[in-house]
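Re: the request from the purification team.
They wanted to know what the chain is likely to look like in 3D before they choose a buffer screen. I agreed to run a prediction and write the result into the notebook, where they can find it.
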Amino acid sequence: MFRQLGAEPPARLTEIYRSFVEDDAMLAVLLEERPRVVSFHFGLPPAERIAALRDAGIVLLATATNLEEARSIATAGVDAVVAQGFEAGGHRGVFDPEAHDDHLGTIALTRLLVRRLEIPVIAAGGIMDGAGIAACLLLGAGAAQLGTAFIACPESAADENYRAALLGDASGHTVITTAISGRPARCLANRFTALGDEAGRGAVPAYPIAYDAAKALSAAAKAAGETGYGAHWAGQGAPLARSLRAATLVAELQSEMEQALSRRRVYTTSGESP
């Protein structure tokens, strides 16, 4: 593909992202700056790192895609679990990418974790409007986490090609691919995901080594005027994306959520079926 784009592939691949699991410098920054929240993805760091952050008064969240992962999060002393449904855009938060994935959806996973855990559950995956937030709250979630809904906001770092794909026909087609980073992630279907399908399992280096090649290929493609090799992460709710300023979108989400919950209360009071 590099040759077709008139470019040379990188001579070697490197680990371009260090993991918090062994990054002492990152831990030191967090303990010094003390952000209000730190969230873990792809599993949990060692117990001593979790303890250090908790001792600093930082609220801790961690992603789970099944009950076993969620129980590990609760046992580790993390404050709340993010229930990431299979609909979610971006990287699957699986602890072990080689283990079987039950592909639990947001509704089923959220309700399961609410029923089985004593820590708060934050629903994530495919939620794009206030009605979706309200539905998750009615399932017992303490909050909802939205990602794809904010990509089209002018404040996001998405480039124009990413925005155009998200707000166009491509939004209706997302796939799970390991080709871009080496870990399963949901992305708008494009030439990069098609290349991953052709390559087959075992041809992609592990995360984050593959990301080094992906970024180089994307840069070469952009230089050649080809926009189909971007990491256009998006969830299955992508067709509902809105191009609004972030503050406006948050206000809309709150209004929609309140309306949905109000309708629910009206039905319950009147005895009518929703």
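For the purification team: The first strand starts at residue 37 and ends at 40.
Please add any questions underneath this entry.
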